[in-house]
Structures are given as C-alpha cells and as structure tokens.
Amino acid sequence: MTSLSAQQAQALIEIANQARQQAYAPYSNYPVGAAVRTKSGRVFTGVNVENAAYPATMCAERIAIFKAVSEGEREFEAIAVVTSNGGSPCGGCRQVMAEFGLETIVLIGNGKGHLLLQTTVRDLLPGAFTPQDLQPDNRA
Ligand code: THU
Predict the structure, then answer these.
(1) Which of 56, 58, 74, 108 lies at a CB distance of 3.0 to 4.6 Å from 117, suitable for a disulfide?
(2) Is residue 12 part of a domain?
(3) Which ligand 1 atom is the nearest neighbour of the CA of 60?
(4) Has residue 112 been placed in a domain?
(5) From the CA of 72, how far away is ligand 1's center (Å)?
(6) What's the CATH number where 129 sits?
C-alpha cells in the first residue's frame, strides 16, 4: 500500500492525538502521541516518556513501534505522530522506522487533529542504513 485513504489517515491521527494525553513530558512540556497501524490491522500507541536524567527519555514513535514489535508485529502500514505544532519525527525515530520498512507511511498531525503531511520513511530518511547493509553480500 502506498497511501492511506483520507479517512484511514484521519483515524490514525485521532488515535495518536488521543494517546498524546498520556505523554509524560514534565521537562519539555512538549507532549507527543504516536500510533502505528500494522499490516495485520492492529494499532499500537506510544507517547514520549521523559526522565529527570534527560537522555533517558524515549520518544513516542519508538515506544509505539517497540510495543508492536514486542507483541509480535514487524510489518507496519503507517505511523502517525501528533504534536501541538505538527513537529516532525526525530532522526532516531526515523532510523527505527527504517528498520521495519522504508515504505511505511508517516502521517504528521497537529494538536487540533489536523493531518498536515502524509509521507514515507523513505522520503524522511534518504540513503537510510538498513538491515540490507549488514547482509554478507553487501559487505566489503
Ligand atoms: N519527541 C518525541 O517523542 N518524538 C520525536 O520524534 C521528537 C521528540 C519528544 C522527546 C522529548 O520528550 C520531547 O519530544 C522534546 O524533545
């Protein structure tokens, strides 16, 4: 699948925006919500979880993906990320998304529940380092 219908996209944005209420972001005050839809049709949410030791913070997108993977899912159709101002996924999250497929659709929304952008991991992370790079045939 290369794109979601407007209705499917909106639905995932709304789930991510709803999840955002559970964000634990007392330091940045920048709550983030994410929702990943698997190819099997399941949805996993995530929020950013901050820590007094700042680098121990984990992003919403990675939590959603890790929850899905830990429940046996590795094939993702789309991931929605919602912030108050429509912020874009960070580099670390793009790398984690790339691990599971460059064609995964990425939806970016704002706190009003508006879908601002529908793109793909491939477009967000050109030249990605992927599992393929570790295949013996691709090594020097
Ligand atoms: N954050 C995310 O959850 N996802 C991103 O892609 C960017 C940043 C979180 C981390 C931190 O809790 C807050 O947003 C500010 O950086």
Answers:
(1) 108
(2) yes
(3) 3
(4) yes
(5) 25
(6) 3.40.140.10
Q: How many CA atoms lie within 13 A of 74 on its CB side?
A: 3
Residue 116: domain span: 6-138
pTM over 0.70: yes
Going by CA atoms, what residue is nearest to atom 4 of ligand 1? 59
Measuring from atom 14 of ligand 1, which residue has the nearest CA? 30
In this predicted model, what pLDDT tens digit does every residue of 12-64 receive, in sequence order? 999 999 999 999 999 999 999 999 999 999 999 999 999 999 999 999 999 99
Which tokens in the block code for residue 140? 């020097």
CA of 105 to the centre of ligand 1 (A): 19
Task: Give the residue among 115, 128, 113, 127 at the shortest CA–CA distance from 20.
Answer: 113
Domain for residue 1, yes or no?
no
CA distance 65 to 129: 18
Provide the domain count of the chain: 1
